[in-house]
Amino acid sequence: MRQTVKAVLVCAVLFGSGQHFLAFGSGDEESVRSNEIKSLNWKKHPSVADVGSMAIYEVDSGFMFLEDPDANKFMRLTENTGDSIGILVPEEGSWWASFEFHEIGYVKDDEKDSLDSVEILKQLRSNQKADNKERRRRGWPELENLNWMRKPHYDERTHNLEWGVKFTESGSGNTGVNYQTRILGRKGVMSVTLVCSPELLEDALPQFKEALKNFKYKAGNKYSEFRSGDRIAEIGLAALIGGGLGAAAVKSGALKWLWKVIVVAFVAIGGLFSKIKKFFVKDNGAPPAEDEPEDGSEDDGETEDNEGSTIGGSDK
To answer: Where are the chain's structural domains?
Structure first.
């Protein structure tokens, strides 16, 4: 458990339309921020939360969920500029996930057997080079050494597309992970971004995937309910990964800052006060980040051939 709580010390905010550093000032400022997060309307078990107008999330024990507009308030409090219609958090606060719906129409899955991980990675790296120009302009560290943590994988049963990328922050050498899931629906795509550190991804991912089973499209919005005459999206599966939704570059919050404010808020909300002490205990046994190139070079991303496992039920 110590390792799980410590994860927040290295977690990166990995989504949003822009990138910001969360700078903490005095203890009073931290307390105010924590209290604001605690005051949000967190839904807990047993409850059903709206994920925009297209879907619901059934909140299980051990988890909390924010609907819009509180989801966006959470984004602002954590200094993320991206929008969100839902925030999912386990009570111990070791990771969190954001939901965002893109009403682009029905995405055909006819590219499922032809996803070229090498070419897609080249596109992601090109996107990141362009985004780094903006990061330099704002005085933020660039993000480098983009490689697959999980190669793209499409599950025909659940109609979910998922992949993960890892990257390095220039100067500090800190690492981060974007783990993305796209849940295809009749009228568009639900983007779900898991926020966690590389060190804890292997532990967080099974919990995240199990929790995501409680996401459901409302009747009439499921992928299987497509009808002739419905709007067809202009992009396919490869473009969903390579930037077709406008999320062209890796998204990172401050890889350097600590999540003390957020964790203290989550712990208080979840009633897990005994874990606060563990959060401040140093743990020298945390495992190193996986598969980081020792020379810092950008390889072809073919370091791992992990296709990921199934998320969700057979018909969302």
So the answer is: 2-279
